[in-house]
Design brief:
Length: about 500
């Protein structure tokens, strides 16, 4: 088998960028010996001739050359990085490898009797790397594992994964029936793959025109140019997560595409969900460009985009009137003027997070309460300018409010809770963490009126044990988060 492996590596090395010999099973709990005839001269020549349709890609974590069933194996690695391992398809085995010493009537496995549709149903639950491993078991599994119905999504994770190479190998294999284009792939998730670069996104942009969902959260080496390329080449893209990509400052079409499109055609992007959390370099001008090109936005998350101001929110409301969920948590320059702009979204707004926006007071909250009366969720934690008056406006106007977080608001007291309890009968989640002015009286009023309460957070609140027991008696399905060691 060592000779065959050497032959395979030598022949495929000319036609593929990432080739290795046998499998180093560092992440599998069980290991199987590769078939002796897995690398025939015919298969090797096929791999040399067809570069655009390589055999299965297997994503493995970094490991030193190991021993597989007593046989020495080697892996083609570059330092300690993880690479995409390319193998030829197994030869015509009808079932997974069995020991040749067993009698013929004992070599069959019970799993072999499963029909193909049962295998496909099982394979749908496997992550990308495990699915590639299954493709190496036998000829039948190889054909089933590369069924196009299983490759609507690619999900890769890992700090040391050589994700650019993995994406290139996988997309080449998936383009086998439609050269250079993968029409089945709709989702690519490579979150926390810090080695992802623009090169990997260019591969996705060129090969996946039907892409609808892209998540590259935590991939801080990705830049604007690569994101522009994906957005321009994937017209059906609706979900984009670039949270933690500090180099991304804007979402727009490439310049060439913008020139080709006429103003009447509309230089618009179909993105509806956009997460730019921790994109620290995003400024008002960048948000202006995003809003002007992504007019169909319904979900926008701008947590810790610390350079944004009220002016950026004004652009957002002008171009994106359909926003339903918005988060500007920890944007310290957002003030009551910004909330006045957000209030123009009126009844369409369902979710709003303004946590730790220290410049917001009752004035801004009153705008939200007056115009956004269909609000379901509000996170105002750490808004120290919020008082009982602001809570009262929310309670009397937002009657459909289900979740409210007013933790670390020292000016909110029992009077505000009483107004909340008398009006917000649909309230299910309430956080009062670190509210210094809350006492047991306010909690009892809430418990006596909000029977559907499911979660109550009173951590670091000076409330007596009797009040907690009162809440437990009246709201039997409520989970109480507290710091009172006497209550259990």
């Amino acid at each position: 088998m060592g000779a065959n492996n050497g032959k395979q590596s030598g022949s495929e090395g000319k036609g593929s960028s990432s080739i290795s010999s046998d499998l180093s099973s560092s992440t599998d709990q069980t290991s199987t010996k590769a078939p002796k005839n897995a690398a025939t001269s015919e298969d090797s020549d096929l791999s040399m001739r067809t570069v655009s349709t390589p055999s299965p890609a297997l994503i493995l974590p970094p490991c030193s050359p190991g021993v597989l069933n007593g046989s020495s194996t080697s892996s083609s690695t570059f330092g300690t990085e993880t690479i995409a391992m390319v193998h030829t398809p197994p030869t015509s085995l009808t079932h997974p490898q069995r020991s040749l010493r067993q009698p013929r009537d004992q070599q069959g496995a019970p799993i072999d009797i499963l029909p193909d549709h049962a295998f496909l149903q099982i394979f749908t639950h496997l992550p990308t790397n495990q699915l590639c491993r299954c493709a190496r078991v036998c000829r039948r599994w190889y054909n089933l594992a590369w069924d196009p119905r299983l490759w609507r999504s690619i999900r890769l994770t890992g700090d040391v994964l050589h994700v650019d190479r993995a994406l290139r190998v996988l997309t080449r294999r998936l383009c086998q029936d439609t050269p250079n284009v993968c029409l089945t792939l709709e989702t690519v998730v490579v979150s926390s793959c810090r080695r992802l670069t623009d090169r990997g996104l260019y591969t996705v942009a060129q090969c996946c025109p039907e892409l609808r969902r892209l998540e590259v959260a935590g991939c801080y080496n990705v830049s604007n140019e690569a994101v522009f390329e994906v957005v321009s080449r994937c017209p059906n893209l609706e979900h984009l997560d670039v949270s933690g990509c500090s180099k991304v400052t804007c979402i727009s079409l490439t310049r060439d595409v913008s020139f080709k499109l006429s103003p009447l055609h509309g230089q618009q992007i179909s993105i509806r969900y956009l997460d730019m959390t921790d994109c620290f370099a995003l400024e008002d001008e960048g948000l202006h460009t995003i809003a002007a090109h992504c007019t169909q936005l319904t979900h926008l998350y701008l947590r810790r985009c610390v350079r944004l101001t009220d002016e950026g929110l004004r652009f957002l409301v002008i171009y994106c009137p359909s926003v339903r969920e918005l988060s500007v948590s920890d944007c310290r320059f957002i003030s009551d003027f910004g909330l006045r702009e957000i209030a123009k979204l009126e009844g369409r707004l369902r979710y709003l997070s303004i946590a730790h926006c220290g410049r917001i007071t009752d004035v801004g909250v009153r705008y939200i309460a007056k115009y956004c009366n269909r609000l379901r969720y509000l996170n105002a934690r750490g808004c120290e300018g919020l008082t009982d008056h602001g809570v009262e406006h929310l309670a009397k106007n937002c009657l459909k409010l289900k979740s409210l977080d007013i933790g670390k608001c020292p000016l909110v007291s029992d009077a505000g809770l009483e107004q909340l309890a008398l009006n917000s009968f649909n309230l299910k989640r309430l956080s009062l963490k670190s509210c210094e002015s809350i006492t047991g009286r306010g909690l009892q009023v809430v418990a006596a009126n909000c029977f559907d309460l499911q979660l109550l957070n009173v951590q670091d609140c000076d409330v007596p044990l009797e009040a907690l027991r009162f809440v437990k008696r009246h709201c039997k399905c409520c989970v109480i988060e507290h710091t009172n060691p006497a209550f259990f």
